[in-house]
Amino acid sequence: MSTQLPSTMESEVSNQADVESEVKPQMIYRCKKCRRIVASQDNIVSHERGEGQKCFKWKKRTGDATNGPPECSSIFVEPMKWMQAVEEGNVEQKLQCIGCNARLGSFNWAGMQCSCGAWVNPAFQLHKSRMDECRF
Known about the structure:
The protein has helices spanning 7-21, 84-87, and strands at residues 27-31, 37-40, 74-76, 92-96, 103-108, 112-113, 119-120, 123-127, 131-135. The protein is of the alpha+beta class. It has a four-stranded antiparallel β-sheet with strand order 3-8-5-4. Strands 2-1-9 form a three-stranded antiparallel β-sheet, with no helix packed on it. It has a two-stranded antiparallel ribbon with strand order 6-7. The N and C termini lie far apart (46 Å).
């Protein structure tokens, strides 16, 4: 005995298969100096964008009144095995590439403020200027 699906159900099943087959390009981040992979899109910890200059202390404000939302100059990631300073049990430290010892960012278990003004706790910050973004 064979069962057949109604035509509307068949089209829904085929549409779901089409949606699942569309794969978004994965972003990876590499050290600019030695090209070692230091993070991927799956490791990124997202945060809500801050209000820019209003969020900083007076000493840290530049006086530039930008109209648009501020752009983040760093990414925040979850702690990873290559972060030797984290493995050693430090509370805050610089993050260096395990391949070439280039400084990629820093971390602080108590949190850090992003360039957009938002606070991220705990913070494992990698500077975009020290890494290459690659899609594959």
